[in-house]
Write a structure and sequence with these properties.
Blueprint (H helix, E strand, L loop, with lengths): L1 E3 L6 H14 L6 E4 L9 H19 L7 E4 L4 E5 L10 E4 L3 H10 L2 E4 L3 H17 L8 E6 L14 H15 L1 E6 L4 H22 L12 H4 L17 E3 L6 H4 L11 E4 L3 H12 L6 E4 L15 E4 L12
Parallel strand pairs: 1-2, 2-5, 5-6, 6-7, 7-8, 10-12, 11-12
Antiparallel strand pairs: 3-4, 9-10
């Protein structure tokens, strides 16, 4: 998790730094932003507006799907033309705060809302974030909810104290009733961190799995910007969940995987299989689309260009790149 205030670092520099770090860590970076005063934005509303423009600049420079230089003109930030720098994966952007203007910004642009664990604030914030998201044509489930907690083990003196079972009883309502999907423990005590990781987290996941239909992991909801690039005739919601990776036209990895080495393409979906069973599932999915073009790709070197297509399905087996000797 990389935390930053875009008023102390130009968002274009921030975007490039995050993209580079995400590549170095093979897609493990998350970006957390916080509004703050700056020379150009002195009031709360202006500060949030400047943060919204910063997010727009970051997303513009990460958007390698649309060719050309990154450009943006706003009230607080301007990008006359900069080389784009795509991260390794779709880096989630989290926004921290409890202001009404900030709630609207989260609903419009962010991937995650970060706050404390006060139930009243969560209720108010969730309502405002959901309303703003629907107004922007987004599914509120796109926006993850994250809380930061502090606590300790031993004698029960309040929330997030006592035994691991006490912690689970305190945390379960946050997940089930308020939709919290990420819990961050703020502590410098090694014993507390170890106890949370080894006792609280597994027990909490089990408790959530027993209550919610889809369990702790929930259902993945792609961003509206990704769904807007979907091609007609493909049942995106019916993709086999067993696939190693599913790439849609709006995903960052699409720019790298849409074409073969010798031919360009624009497939509607790329199913990456890493096992025989996943290949079987991908073929079964393709059979349900008899009118959609199907391409098979191993390394993508074919001169004829048959490893990609326009608007169809690609079954990519490049992850199956090892040989196992069954009988020496």
């Amino acid at each position: 998790m990389l935390e930053a205030r875009p008023d102390t670092l130009h968002p274009a520099m921030l975007a490039r730094a995050v993209a580079g770090l995400d590549r170095l860590t093979e897609g493990r970076v998350e970006l957390a932003l916080r509004a703050g005063p700056s020379a150009a934005a002195s009031g709360t509303a202006d500060s949030v507006a400047a943060l919204g423009e910063a997010i727009a600049v970051v997303r513009e420079l990460w958007n390698a799907l649309d060719r050309g230089l990154g450009r943006f003109t706003g009230r607080f930030h301007r990008l006359a033309g900069a080389e784009k720098a795509a991260p390794a994966h779709d880096v989630p952007i989290s926004v921290d705060g409890q202001d009404q203007d900030l709630f609207r910004l989260v609903g419009l642009r962010a991937d995650e809302w970060s706050t404390g664990c006060d139930a009243a604030t969560l209720t108010q914030g969730n309502r405002a974030v959901d309303e703003a998201a629907r107004g922007a044509g987004r599914d509120p489930r796109e926006i993850r909810r994250r809380v930061t907690i502090r606590g300790g083990f031993g004698r029960r003196t309040g929330r997030f104290t006592g035994t691991a079972a006490d912690w689970v009883n305190d945390l379960l309502p946050l997940v089930v009733e308020h939709g919290v999907g990420t819990i961050v423990l703020d502590t410098e005590e090694r014993d507390v961190a170890a106890g949370f990781a080894s006792e609280v987290a597994p027990a909490l996941r089990a408790a959530v799995d027993a209550v919610l239909p889809r369990g702790w992991s929930g259902a993945r909801v792609r961003r509206s910007a990704v769904r807007a690039r979907r091609r007609p005739g493909i049942d995106y919601e019916g993709v086999p969940p067993e696939m190693a990776e599913v790439i849609e036209p709006g995903d960052p990895a699409y720019a790298r995987l849409r074409s073969g080495y010798l031919r360009g393409g624009s497939p509607g979906i790329i199913l990456r299989a890493a096992t025989n069973e996943q290949v079987i599932q991908a073929l079964a999915f393709a059979r349900r689309h008899p009118g959609v073009a199907l391409s098979r790709r191993s390394a993508g070197h074919g001169v004829s260009g048959r490893s990609t297509n326009d608007g169809g399905i690609v079954i990519d087996v490049s992850l199956m790149n090892a040989i196992e000797v069954l009988d020496r």
